[in-house]
Design a protein that fits this description.
By secondary structure, this protein is an alpha+beta fold. The protein is built from 3 helices and 4 strands. A hairpin with a 3-residue loop joins strand 1 and strand 2. About 25% of the residues are buried.
Length: about 110
């Protein structure tokens, strides 16, 4: 589970990222980020009901993405708020493919 201090929960932060953040895309994910003036980076994983109508599938995907982030926290640069959203293609991927795509996207955004 992602530690509480690394979670992004405030609605004002989500709005700030949406308005002034940069976006990066991969085959499965969209990553939005903005500076937060903290020493750590905070994350949120958002999976829309458009991805799957089944909450079980959405929650499983969220858990997998949070675990990938948690395992790589030491490598990720601090000072950013990051929102990771997914599309329906990610449901068909296995854990290794998800990990590869997410890490590649973090490298592309210069967070890794």
């Amino acid at each position: 589970m992602l530690p509480t201090s690394y979670r992004l929960t405030q609605e004002k932060d989500f709005r700030r990222i949406t308005v002034s953040g940069k976006s990066f895309f991969s085959h499965f994910f969209r990553l939005r980020l903005a500076k937060n003036n903290l020493k750590i980076s905070r994350f949120a994983v958002v999976i829309s009901s458009r991805v799957s109508k089944k909450a079980v599938m959405r929650n499983r995907l969220k858990r997998q993405l949070r675990e990938i982030i948690r395992l790589n926290l030491a490598k990720i640069k601090g000072g950013f708020d990051v929102v990771v959203s997914s599309n329906s293609k990610a449901l068909d991927a296995n854990y290794q493919e998800l990990e590869q795509q997410l890490l590649q996207l973090l490298r592309k955004s210069h967070l890794l």
